[in-house]
Amino acid sequence: MTDDRPSSAHFAQAVRCHRAGRLEEAARLYRAALSADPGDAEVHYALGVLELQAGRSRLAIKELERAASLAPGYIEAWEALGTAHAQSGAFAAAATAFESIVALHPDHLPALVNLGIAQRRLGRVRDALESHRQAVAVDASSSLARFNLGCTLADAGDADAAMEALRVTLSIEPGHVAAMTRLAGLLVDQARHDEALGWYREVLRVRPDAPRAHYNLGVALQAAGRNAEAANAFEIAIRRDPRDMDAWNNLCISLLRDGRPAAALAACEGYLRITPAHLCKPLAYKAVALLELGRRDEALAILDVDRLLLRRSLPVPAGFDSMHAFNGALARHVLAAGDLEFEPRDKATRGGRQTGELFASTDAAIAALVSAIELAIQDFVAALRASLPTHPYTQRLPQRWRLTGWAVVLDRLGHQQPHFHPDGSVSGVYYVRLPPSMHGARNDAGCLEFGRVAGAIGGRAEPLLNTMRPEEGLLLLFPSYFYHRTIPFEDSQPRISIAFDVMPTG
């Protein structure tokens, strides 16, 4: 572009202001330049970069899209546009921008890497692998390309290949903190604790101030069963960042595992102080610590099933002739779900299948169930605020929330291991279909049990147990911090339920 273009004088001034960090003055001058020449792609690009630096992604995207449309070969504009979209969480649009660069220059290393990162964030792992492999082919000595290939291989479940790529990254750039951290995490997953600890300690040697370094070390020590050392690492992490909720969470767990309930109780109180008012997870650990200390009445106040649980038999929803027809429609929808997965990873379901998100469906039966659940939640929250206004759980009930749900299909001997829902506020279950052996049964097979703590937490005290017998058409609501499990049953017919969480949104 020549110096005699209409925008030139304002543009030169704007660039000087931009370089000096006077962003608002520069923005005004860029806009003046565009008033003189609205078709100047370079000015649109520069203004877009400025808006991106100022944290105004929407305005940045508008200017950068204009620059790229005016000059389709303008690589820098496409790069900045992709970055702006990625920063705003629009990874599909980011991928499109980086694809535009790769279409023009197939060997453009930064675009290939950024394209792979966007594809990975979209869950397009195979596409991301191809992009990162192309990046490595362009420059085998690029630690950036190797590192991202390793991370994507890990996402794809190929841990051995991922670790090899990360080791190559470290041979290229020995002090690559992110590569050491990711490699150590993969080693923890394989129970290769000594190797993992070695890499985490190397991170601390290279970068003593590396974010999360002490926390990561604590996680590895905890996984190795070295709970006293893990607690020390989490305490250091907390001293560095007193609001690190993950460190507080794991400190509580390590202290309980290490048989130090008094210290765990103190940690729970600290955790509660820094936790957002609408999250109640620390109460799960506090109840365990109180039980371990023999303070059963105080634990019972936190785990009071009689006062903190709602049990409701749903009426027949509009549009259905009977509860049998309604539950039949729900069962058919659940069993036909394409994402019904056997024993999904990181879930409590054993000997059964579980869906992903269920409540996004437009199915009439699901919509009717969601409406009934929402009404029950409103009643539950209102009743607690009226009857137990000072209870620590009531005080943490959120004002704003969203509902998420999934279905669980348990087969013979199927069950759910003891767990609680750490990110929820109110949790619940609706019973769709029970196997014949559970109708009128006198034993606890297939029942829902509250109070049994997960083995991973430990605990030697006698738990406060309560058992709830399921019934078809029954809805239960309870605090998300309640530990619960299901008891295995003997039957050839499945047990179908729909579970859900109230997720606080602020």
TrEMBL record:
UniProt keywords, alphabetically: TPR repeat
Parts of the chain that traverse the membrane: none
Placement of TPR repeats on the sequence: 41-74, 75-108, 143-176, 177-210, 211-244
Matching Gene3D superfamilies: q2cbj1_9rhob like domain, Tetratricopeptide repeat domain
InterPro entries: CHP02466, TPR-4, TPR-like_helical_dom_sf, TPR_rpt
Full protein name: Tetratricopeptide repeat protein
Species whose genome carries this gene: Luteimonas rhizosphaericola
Taxonomy of the source species: Bacteria, Pseudomonadati, Pseudomonadota, Gammaproteobacteria, Lysobacterales
